[in-house]
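A reminder from the course coordinator: this example appears on the midterm review sheet, so study it carefully.

Given structure:
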């Protein structure tokens, strides 16, 4: 037996239009389990950062009846049901505390606090919110994506409930089911490069490049959007010392390679020429975050990295997850 659903059904399960489109394209499914496996593959490997943020924005914050971005009445009803335990166990004081922490969380991370709330009381939700609040933005971005997948699985089960007997989803992932957090960080890197058509892993040793070997991308989590209009500068170390020394700055040793301004997707233009083999050495990429966010903590952000001889043909993507008061980076190539 096959179970066919429309794009609007999958959009009610997950507020990402890209996710719903991909799921509808490969439907029908022969079982609930097959649909869940497809959903995980699409969510973690095909939906980009903007799709993740779109899905997050479709959720009301815990304690509210609905979000202005909810995609359908079905989604709104499911959200209400998923929050029923929290609302039933709330008091005036805990609702006020929840509201204050929700507001604090959103101000720091740029998106709603996301948790699979089914069966959770208000005190449990508040405790988890407080526990996650100190996290770095990239860690919390990962947590939100995991919670979204739990909610999606729960809702997929609801789609199948009327057609066959399947247990409720939204369960905790076992060690064999869940991708490890450090691997998910690499997946986020893949999302940051996906829109340009770049492979998530290093480029083939034998392929001819179609873009510069060093690229970057900025995600502003304080706004929940790509960091557009940020000046970016790339330099290479050519000083008298073999490498720059910590605590001994030598501005004359850095040679300008190129500069650009991030576009509406947070991506820089060409910072250097397209070459098959990049010159090994130490590079510095700098972001004019002070001009982008004058009231923020960072006048600018610089990241120094080394490309070794054995890495001449690889691609290096240096994205940053940024807010006015925190940033983190990782290699996303």
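Designed residues:
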């Amino acid at each position: 037996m096959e179970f066919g659903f429309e794009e609007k059904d999958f959009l009610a399960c997950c507020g990402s239009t890209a996710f719903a489109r991909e799921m509808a394209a490969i439907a029908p499914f022969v079982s609930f389990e097959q649909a869940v496996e497809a959903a995980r593959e699409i969510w973690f490997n095909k939906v980009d950062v903007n799709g993740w943020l779109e899905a997050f924005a479709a959720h009301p914050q815990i304690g509210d009846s609905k979000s202005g971005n909810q995609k359908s009445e079905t989604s709104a009803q499911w959200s209400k049901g998923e929050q029923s335990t929290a609302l039933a166990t709330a008091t005036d004081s805990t609702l006020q505390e929840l509201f204050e922490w929700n507001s604090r969380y959103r101000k720091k991370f740029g998106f709603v606090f996301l948790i699979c709330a089914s069966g959770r009381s208000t005190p449990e939700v508040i405790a988890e919110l407080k526990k996650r609040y100190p996290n770095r933005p990239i860690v919390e971005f990962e947590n939100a994506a995991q919670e979204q997948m739990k909610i999606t699985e729960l809702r997929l089960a609801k789609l199948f409930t009327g057609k066959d007997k399947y247990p409720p989803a939204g369960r905790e992932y076992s060690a064999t089911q869940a991708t490890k957090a450090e691997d998910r960080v690499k997946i986020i890197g893949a999302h940051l490069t996906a829109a340009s058509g770049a492979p998530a892993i290093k480029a083939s040793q034998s392929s001819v490049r179609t873009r510069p070997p060093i690229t970057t991308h900025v995600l502003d989590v304080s706004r929940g959007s790509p960091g557009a209009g940020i000046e970016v500068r790339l330099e290479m170390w050519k000083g008298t010392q073999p490498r720059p020394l910590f605590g001994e700055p030598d501005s004359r040793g850095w040679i300008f390679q190129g500069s650009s301004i991030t576009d509406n997707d947070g991506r820089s233009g060409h910072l250097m020429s397209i070459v098959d083999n990049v010159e090994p050495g130490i590079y510095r990429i700098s972001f004019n975050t002070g001009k982008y966010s004058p009231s923020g903590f960072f006048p600018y952000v610089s990241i120094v990295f080394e490309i070794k001889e054995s890495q001449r043909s690889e691609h290096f993507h240096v994205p940053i997850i940024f807010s006015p008061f925190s940033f983190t980076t990782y290699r996303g190539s």
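Strands lie at 214-215, 218-220, 225-226, 231-237, 254-261, 281-287, 301-307, 316-317, 320-323, 326-329. The CA atoms of residues 203 and 232 lie 23 Å apart.
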